[in-house]
Amino acid sequence: MIAHLRGKLLAKHPNQAIVEIGGVGYDVTISVPTFSDLPAAGAEVALHVHTHVREDQLALYGFLRSSEKTLFEKLITVSGIGPKLAITILSGMPADEMVGAIRGNDIARLTRIPGIGKKTAERMVLELRDKLPAPGPSFAPAAPAMSATEEDVLSALLNLGYQRAAAEKALSAVAKNGRVASFDSMFRETLAALTK
Questions:
Q1: Who has the most CB within 10 Å: 109, 111, 171, 175?
Q2: In three state form, how does the secondary structure of the chain look?
């Protein structure tokens, strides 16, 4: 599935970006924070993408920061939250503040987001509190030096429950030796480094 797009930004709206790659325009649903940080139309843009497949629809959800994509993917695991509501949630509060509110059991703050009632906020806290990283430096934008393959490896390790700092350190050690290029071999070597 599509995990990353890099190309020319043809158009942008508060909930949509159209990115042209090789003559094909991809319609990507985006959050308001991603929209705010996008360059002007005509510039090159790179988006982390979540591909959502249903029997009647294939939809792309794009994010400038991998931390926002990670939070989006955690949100859609909560029962009652689909991708459209997850985008609305991410548009209603900065990602690091949301992580703090969920980890801090701040139901009142979460219910201020449009579309989030008390029950949904309680489910978010219950289901995500222990799955989210501590707010702070881990939710800073990822270093731009990371390749798309490295970002995919990091995302896979975070989904397995590894701490971001440890995963980034092991990944950078594996990437420095320069021998590893494919996702599979880089993932295996980084996993081996983490389990030593």
A1: 171
A2: CCCEEEEEEEEEECCEEEEEECCEEEEEEECHHHHHHCCCCCCEEEEEEEEEEECCEEEEEEECCHHHHHHHHHHCCCCCCCHHHHHHHHHHCCHHHHHHHHHCCCHHHHCCCCCCCHHHHHHHHHHHCCCCCCCCHHHCCCCCCCCHHHHHHHHHHHHCCCCHHHHHHHHHHHHHCCCCCCHHHHHHHHHHHHCC
